[in-house]
Amino acid sequence: MLPDGAVRLVFNLGDAPSAGPGHRIEAMGASAAPSLVRLSGRMDGVTIALRAGAASALLEIPAGELTDNAEHLDELWQGEGARVLERLAEAPNDGARVQVVQQALACASNVETAPPTEPHAVRLCS
Asked: What is the pLDDT of residues 91-111, one digit of tens each?
């Protein structure tokens, strides 16, 4: 992977490796150097690339604190990361997964969105 300045939210539903031990949901900071990633097994999941300003707003920490590091998303979202991962696993198709992710990002940013049309994409925030 080449450094691009993006912070990534990773929701791993398969066997793909993660940046931290056992983290299936994580926020991965921007890399300062290129890295080699070897993929094997069943790969399934969702990854969202965010610019630093968006990452800071969604994670409520400066994006620079994540540089060359990964944090468990549950710690940053007070347990909501596991709930999002569960909804993604239940989603029957990619369209439903997109709606789950949109709802999660809207909740994290306190932005109101239209009601989801897919049943698996129920509102994640109150």
From this structure: 999 999 999 999 999 888 876
Q: What pLDDT was estimated at residue 123? A: 46
Contact 5, 51 (CB under 8 A): yes
Question: What angle, rounded to 10 degrees, do the helices at 94-109 and 52-59 form?
Answer: 70
Helix (H, G, I), strand (E, B) or coil at 117: coil
Residue boundaries of the structural domains of the chain = 7-109
DSSP E strands in 20-108: the ranges are 25-28, 45-50, 70-72
Residue 15, C-beta contacts closer than 8 angstroms, at least 6 positions apart = 40, 41, 42, 43
Q: Which residues contact 68 (CB under 8 A, 6 or more apart)?
A: 29, 30, 31, 32, 33
Q: Pull the structure tokens for residue 13.
A: 């539903």
The model scores a pTM over 0.85: no
